[in-house]
Write a structure and sequence with these properties.
With 305 residues, the protein is an alpha+beta fold. It is built from 7 helices and 15 strands. It has one domain. Helix content is 21%, strand content 28%. The longest helix is centred in the middle third of the chain and has 14 residues.
């Protein structure tokens, strides 16, 4: 399925971000209490995580995980909003994988408010859901807009509820995982070959006949690590699958969306050929997401050198 997208991407976040900044500037006067603000980080090539606060590794601590959710911006988007059920099977598989992780405890998040949940965007600075200030992250020596990480911070009400949840359930950290769609830039592998970096040690080749400046549609898992005060301390993402748009369609600014068939394949045939046993890319992405969030390098799955 092809859709036409404006080259001015990410503007659907503009109003919310500007209002958030204004709310922050008036917080001292007690106005707009509970509104969220965000922060954007430039990601160097091959980097998919960002420390938001200084904190020790959480690998040896009691870490809870909330039920997997579909990214709320994807759920509300014009392109994917009416197709939420297509993601249900993938979310169920993700949930089963996380429940089976012996480093995580299943947390009951029923007391958390529906509004004010923190959210992370990882993708191109000109991706569909990138914040409006992301394009300013491009440095003079960068030919194309970089990858960025945008963190939408939790509201004060959500922080308080999360802090109480962890205290009641004996947890020292909380992990939030979402399934999302983003856009990643292409890169070069050697002189002529092209690829896309999808996550920790994960690259996918890209056909030679493709516009280098056009983004790829990516299915990804994103995650947040929250401390006992309900603050986000680390955030990041792992790509599962990248899909390019046919070359002729790129000339008219069209983008090939992830269709139902592509989404179903991540449960059966999208595999990491570079890892022993060719495991499913989705499983590796989830394992690496958790290991990277809690800073447990021994659990990170990388290709053999």
């Amino acid at each position: 399925m092809l859709v036409s997208r404006s080259p001015l991407r990410g503007r659907r976040f503009a109003a919310a971000l500007l209002l958030g900044v204004f709310a922050a500037s008036t917080a001292a006067a007690g106005m707009f209490e509970g509104w969220t603000v965000g922060e954007t980080h430039h990601l160097d090539p091959g980097k998919f995580y960002q420390d938001v606060r200084k904190a020790p590794a959480a690998a040896s601590k009691a870490v809870g995980v909330l039920p997997v959710a579909l990214d709320r911006e994807i759920a509300a988007s014009f392109e994917y909003g009416d197709r939420r059920q297509e993601f249900d099977a993938v979310i169920a598989a993700m949930q089963a994988r996380l429940v089976g992780n012996d480093r995580l405890r299943v947390a009951d998040g029923s007391a958390l408010p529906a509004e004010g949940t923190p959210r992370v965007y990882v993708g191109s600075a000109i991706g569909d859901f990138a914040p409006p200030d992301a394009e300013q992250m491009q440095e003079p020596d960068e030919q194309f807009p970089p990858m960025v990480l945008y963190l939408e911070k939790p509201s004060s009400a959500w922080q308080e509820a999360a802090s109480k949840l962890m205290a009641d359930q004996g947890l020292e950290h909380l992990v939030l995982v979402t399934l999302s769609v983003s856009q990643y830039p292409k890169g070069r592998s050697g002189v002529f070959a092209k690829n896309v970096r999808l996550g920790t040690g994960h690259e996918q080749p890209v056909k030679f006949l493709t516009a280098e400046d056009k983004l790829l549609e990516v299915l990804q898992v994103t995650g947040l690590l929250v401390d006992t005060q309900g603050r986000v301390v680390r955030a990041g993402a792992e790509g599962v699958l990248a899909q390019d748009t046919p070359f002729l369609a790129q000339a008219v600014e069209a983008t090939k969306m992830l269709d139902d068939a592509a989404i179903r394949k991540v449960l059966t045939s999208v595999r990491r050929e570079d890892l022993p046993g060719t495991p499913l890319s989705l499983e590796v992405a989830l394992d690496n997401l958790v290991a990277q969030l809690v800073k447990d390098p021994e659990r990170v799955r990388r290709p053999l050198e």
